[in-house]
Design a protein that fits this description.
The chain is mostly beta strands. It has helices at residues 29-32, 148-152, 191-202; strands at residues 39-47, 52-60, 79-82, 92-98, 101-102, 105-106, 120-124, 130-142, 158-170, 175-186. The chain is globular. Residues 1-16, 18-27 and 205-213 have low confidence and may be disordered.
Amino acid sequence: MRYLLAVVALLALVAGCSSTASDGARPSLAEQQESNGAVVPGYSLSVPKLGIDRATMVSLGLNADGSIQVPSVSRPRALGVYAHGPMPGRVGPAVILGHVNGGGQAGVFSRLDTLRVGDDITSTAPDGTVTRFVVYRTQTIPKRDWPTAAIYADTATPELRLVTCGGRLDVAAHNVDSTVLVGARRACRGAAATIRTWISETKPEVLPLHHGGWR
């Protein structure tokens, strides 16, 4: 696999729910895992259904415990891309994280779970290349069931993994019990005319509201 074994804990600990600590309380998991990474030059992401238009992405690495960093809670509209994996538009699964909320406002991925099969996503690379992706799966997965091998396995074509928090909030832990995951594949030329036929014939595994493993 392309990724190191350290990636095993990456998204099991993602804290896309940014429940901010009050005075005297310990920081939320999101705050503990914030990235100070700079914006990745030249890359942007658009998700029309979510109102995201050419959003830039900050670079995310790993924390000391092997968990993935998250964008700063103080910037809930910011996206982050795992910098040690493929960039959007490159072969392999590009992992992009965003918050549900932060600082009393909705986050960039507050409606991530509303994406459905056939929805469009586009990425732009530094050289101006635009890659169109089509959503093939949306799922809410309990963190204890996170299927690392399936999510991070090499793919023959460019794919996206959009990730944020979901499920029930554990107030004491300042975290939630599940993760919302959207999978998207690069669209073939002319895909707009054939996507509905592909869905009806292949019945892709898209489970928008199902809590379970990514099989």
